[in-house]
Design a protein that fits this description.
Blueprint lengths: L7 H18 L17 E4 L8 H8 L4 E4 L11 H20 L4 E3 L1 E3 L2 E2 L26 E2 L5 H15 L7 E5 L7 H6 L1 H4 L2 E4 L14 E5 L1 H6 L5 H14 L7 E4 L8 H4 L4 H11 L4 H11 L5 E4 L27 E2 L5 E5 L2 E6 L5 E11 L5 E7 L3 E7 L23 E4 L4 E5 L4 E6 L4 E6 L2 E6 L3 E4 L6 E5 L3 E5 L2 E12 L2 E12 L3 E10 L3 E13 H4 L3 E3 L4 E3 L8 E12 L3 E15 L7 E6 L4 E3 L4 E12 L2
Length: 632
């Protein structure tokens, strides 16, 4: 294939590879190879507005981006729309200008695979129907498409080939709401003689798909790391694997949002646009820890990063000093240090990220400037769930003393508690039990000697129309200490769509390495529940081969998936491996399943105290106690 017939991206990569070869031939063979743009690599997710803004309005911002994911015209089975053809002219003009000043940028138009607008041109047989035979919506203004139909998959491939990949201004395609499959992704990747860039949004970073995909969008999964629902080390290993093993150029992207913002899409879309814009401006500086933590994690690999308002309007044109850090290119891969932090050295500085449950003090050779604070020193405290970009400098030390670590891995002599950033509370016992508790009562981390013991402890609720309940508001917690134990009380309201329930929670942590949770609920509206689950999850990597037993059965937890059902529901379950023994007692019978059947690498212990229709005013309770001790 001649160069004149290739895409702009392929031509740029081809010429860049020749230049790289010539430069390497004249330099040391040990010099690291510099592929792609320098770091940090900042992207925009959905909001670049290439099809709606002029070059004069957006050129200065677009010129700084390395990846534009969507941001041209979002296609939801409306290819025949006049807005699409109208946007194309402006997109092509803007991209022609952008390529001249920003040759590294990769542009991937947005195609929604599983959601369509209310379009009469969509065949009626294509809609995915619920149990009542009706179309259903997982996002405001859109309805689900039945992706099991071969003709639907073929339609998507044909449209992408004709409308996107036949236009040289685009580098590939971004499939939103799609997963690693064995037809659409491989077929798309084979286009342009196998050089089409294909990126998907599978919500989580999957553990497969590297051979046919250039990358995956981790859309807010990193926020679930901060919530304690996803293990940092597991997330990082999947991210690094996507950067290393996917097709090149690799385009995996982390996109993160401020933790203090509403995430229910049906509720946020009801907010008037002017009010939403005002709220988004206020959120820009409201949670800079999440920005630092997410960006530093992205810099451990070769992917891209974005920080915006998520469901309130993805793709804000925010820019932070950290984005301008002159890091250049990495000197090698990231490495984990003994204190649990990860570090990566670049030509222009050092990036450190702390995904552990403890604060860490890091030491460097010579003075460095913290890009975020401006402090100059050779020793820095990096709090848990935070990160730092540190640039070497000849300046003298300035900025005063750094903060001292608030919580460390060393167990205390008596039960102790500490208040952390972001409304978190830490509680540690002498035996090694270590909890992180949010202001609303959710357990973010349950640790044993610094390792994840399990996750859960707070209800997971789903309404019949698939709205996930989230804490809408909560009162400041009450914290008491007495008889060698800490007691917390929380109360608030959880909402899913138009349905809501009040909760009152008591949590006690004792010196005998145990904790107990009591919940009391009041339905504030009529509820139609698809799911109400109280649960704990146990990582496969930690518990494979352990013994699980209750009064009805005993099982060795399998290393490989065999069957979902492991233990029938009972009110007491004991898990024992070579290190520890867990005893879980609950007011509702809890059964154990292998959750790999449903896509996560964990065993799930769960009980379901209520289900179906619940009338407003109804009350119910649930309590659970977990105790841990070292195995004999």
């Amino acid at each position: 294939m001649s160069i004149s017939r290739t895409t702009p991206l392929v031509r740029r990569l081809f010429l860049a590879s020749i230049l790289s070869f010539l430069v390497q031939g004249a330099s040391s063979a040990a010099e690291p190879r510099h592929d792609g743009p320098p770091f940090p690599r900042i992207g925009n997710c959905y909001g670049a507005s290439l099809g709606s803004r002029s070059w004069e309005e957006g050129g200065a911002y677009w010129s700084k981006l390395r990846l534009i994911c969507g941001g041209c015209f979002d296609l939801h089975y409306d290819w025949e729309s006049r807005d699409w053809s109208k946007a194309l002219a402006r997109v092509e003009d803007n991209l022609a200008r952008l390529r001249k000043v920003n040759p590294h940028v990769i542009v991937l138009p947005y195609v929604d695979v599983i959601e369509g607008i209310d379009n009469p041109r969509i065949p009626k047989s294509w809609w995915d129907l619920n149990a009542e035979g009706m179309r259903w919506s997982g996002w405001p203004g859109y309805y689900r498409i039945n992706m099991k139909l071969p003709e639907v998959l073929d339609y998507n491939l044909t449209k992408v080939r004709e409308e996107i990949l036949n236009r040289p201004c685009f580098d590939g395609v971004f499939y939103d709401c799609w997963h690693v499959d064995d037809w659409l992704c491989p077929k798309t990747a084979a286009l342009r003689d196998g050089r089409a860039i294909v990126m998907i949004n599978d919500w989580n970073l999957p553990r497969k798909g590297f051979a046919t995909l250039n990358g995956c969008l981790a859309e807010d999964e990193f926020n679930r790391v901060m919530e304690g629902k996803v293990d940092f080390e597991d997330f990082l290993s999947r991210y690094l694997r996507w950067c290393a093993e996917s097709r090149k150029p690799a385009v995996t992207m982390l996109v993160v949002h401020p933790r203090n913002m509403p995430m229910d899409p049906f509720r946020t879309h009801e907010i008037p646009w002017a009010k939403r814009v005002e709220q988004r401006r206020a959120l820009q500086q409201s949670d800079l820890q999440s920005l630092r933590f997410g960006l530093a994690t992205a810099l451990m690999g070769d992917g891209y990063f974005g920080y915006d308002c998520a469901n309130m309007g993805r793709g804000d044109w925010w820019w932070f000093p950290e984005y301008d850090a002159p890091l250049g290119y990495p000197k090698g891969p990231a490495r984990k240090d003994a204190d649990g932090t990860w570090r990566r050295d670049f030509d222009g500085g050092t990036v450190i990220v702390n995904g552990s449950a403890y604060d860490a003090v890091v030491h460097l050779a010579g003075n460095h400037r913290d890009v975020s604070s401006g402090r100059v020193a050779r020793e820095f405290t990096v709090p848990m769930l935070d990160g730092r970009i540190l640039l070497p400098t000849s300046e003298p030390a300035r900025g005063g003393y750094d903060s001292l670590p608030r919580v460390t891995a060393q167990p205390p002599k008596a039960v102790r508690a500490a208040v952390l950033d972001g409304g978190l509370h830490a509680v540690q016992t002498p035996g090694g039990l270590d909890l992180r508790i949010a202001d609303d009562g959710q357990l973010r981390n349950i640790l044993w000697h610094g390792k994840t013991l399990c996750r859960g402890g707070f209800p997971s609720i789903l309404s019949s129309d698939r709205n996930s309940f989230v804490v809408e508001k909560s009162e400041p917690p009450t914290v008491r200490y007495g008889d060698g134990q800490y007691g917390f009380e929380f109360q608030g309201t959880m909402r899913g769509g138009k349905e809501c329930v009040d909760y009152h929670e008591k949590l006690q942590v004792g010196p005998d390495d145990s904790f107990a949770i009591q919940f009391h609920f009041i339905a504030k509206t009529d509820l139609k529940l698809r799911l109400w689950r109280h649960y704990f999850t146990f990582p496969i990597s930690e518990y494979a081969g352990a013994t699980a037993v209750n009064d009805r059965a005993k099982v060795v937890l399998p290393a490989k998936f065999g069957t979902a059902e492991l233990l029938p529901g009972m009110c007491k379950t004991i898990l024992q491996n070579g290190e520890k023994t867990l005893s879980i007692e609950s007011s509702t019978a809890m059964g154990l399943v292998d959750h790999r059947k449903y896509g996560t690498e964990e065993y799930l212990l769960a009980g379901y105290p209520v289900r179906g229709e619940v009338k407003a005013g109804a009350t119910w309770s649930f309590h659970v106690r977990m105790s841990i001790e070292n195995s004999p």
